[in-house]
Amino acid sequence: MDTPTVSPTARLLGGAGLLPQFGALLIQAGSPGLEAGKIAAFGYASLILSFLGGIWWGLAMRRTQRQRVLVIVAVLPSLVPLALVPVVVFGGWRWGLVGLAVALMLTLLVDRRLVERGDAPEGWMKLRVPLSGGLAVLTLIAAVLR
What we know:
globular; 146 residues
């Protein structure tokens, strides 16, 4: 049986997934007085966190044992933005974006565990590190841009 591997197409399209956050930064840089860029950056990072949870859910469904722990973990990324609402309300978009950036970096711990358990395809971390790390950095830039 062939070992599942992250394809070059997946890497290319995954990298293209950073473009919307670049777009949010362009909006923010072009309209420094408006919060539209920060709102877009928060929304996109939130969407990607939820997407990652969906990937983990799918990987959990392939497990024959210890599925419960991973499905619980898979739901958490979609709850992070909700948990950050009070941070945004009381501290502003900047701190909400910082919280999302931290959450994006923490996803790599789950991804690493998926690799260790044999749940993720070969080359998973070579895909995930630049994507989560890149999105986290772009989200932090959105946090500090005026």
